[in-house]
Design brief:
Structural class: alpha/beta
Radius of gyration: 17 Å
Oligomer: single chain
Strand order of the largest sheet: 1-2-4-3-5-6-7-8
Shape: globular
Helix content: 40-55%
Number of helices: 11
Length: 240
């Protein structure tokens, strides 16, 4: 059921690993949290709670390392970290997505998902590439990364940050994005920041991009206990 594929990415200048769980169904690419790797969702039992959907052949789950998230955590600097956001996005679109298509034997639209910084990455790739991603499931997201900038916003950062560039987007790209869907969910417990979801929803809604915010109660913190409850519920909805 589990398979791992690693190759050297010329775009990233390092190895890129993709892990897959499952043998059939809708492809779902789940991004890890900021410092996470491609097997994080297995260690924190997300794969376990998705087992019913996986075993029934309804979803096939993929994950990658959080290469761009780690750059911000390690303080690589505004310009290098911002460039990595752009190259990571390109690697997802032009390396990971074709690998998913080859694994599925056809060019299926991919659902993207993630929690915390993973939610940012899910939103980012959907907004940049509505031609290949059908929906984004964003849990307890951190969508404004500008707080990590030490100076002016580099162009690579701006065009990798949906809440910054979407208000000025128009034309065919926006038309395609308006055919997609973003589901934003968060709790009200410890370390959650509900304003991030509502701000993002306002930006998306202002441009006519279909979205919904689900707010869970104060017993749901910014942690895996919340995301393990959310992932199966919302993926079931999105594939139905």
């Amino acid at each position: 059921m589990k398979a791992t594929d690693t190759w050297f990415s010329e775009r990233l200048g390092q190895d890129l690993t993709v892990v897959r769980w499952g043998m059939g169904g809708a492809p779902v690419l789940i991004f890890p949290t900021a410092g996470g790797d491609c097997e994080e969702i297995e260690r924190f039992h997300v794969i376990s709670v998705l087992e019913e959907l996986i075993e029934a052949g309804r979803i096939r789950v993929y994950s990658v390392d959080s290469i761009n998230g780690r750059a911000w955590l390690t303080g690589a600097g505004d310009e290098p970290s911002s460039r990595l956001m752009t190259t990571f996005d390109a690697a997802i679109r032009f390396e990971v997505v074709p690998a998913i298509w080859a694994d599925n034997g056809q060019e299926k639209e991919v659902i993207v998902a993630g929690s915390s910084i993973g939610a940012f990455n899910a939103l980012e790739v959907l907004c940049r590439h509505p031609d290949v991603f059908s929906a984004a499931l964003c849990l307890s997201g951190t969508y404004d990364l500008s707080r990590w900038l030490d100076g002016p916003m580099p162009p690579d950062f701006y065009f990798s940050s949906p809440i910054h560039y979407l208000p000025g987007l128009d034309g065919p790209h926006l038309d395609a994005l308006r055919q997609r869907f973003v589901l934003l969910a968060h709790g009200l417990g410890m370390a959650e920041d509900p304003a991030q979801s509502w701000q993002t929803a306002a930006v998306l809604g202002g441009q006519g991009v279909p979205n919904r915010v689900d707010e869970w109660g104060p017993e749901w913190p910014h942690d895996w206990v919340t995301w393990r409850a959310m992932f199966p519920r919302y993926l079931e909805e999105l594939i139905s």
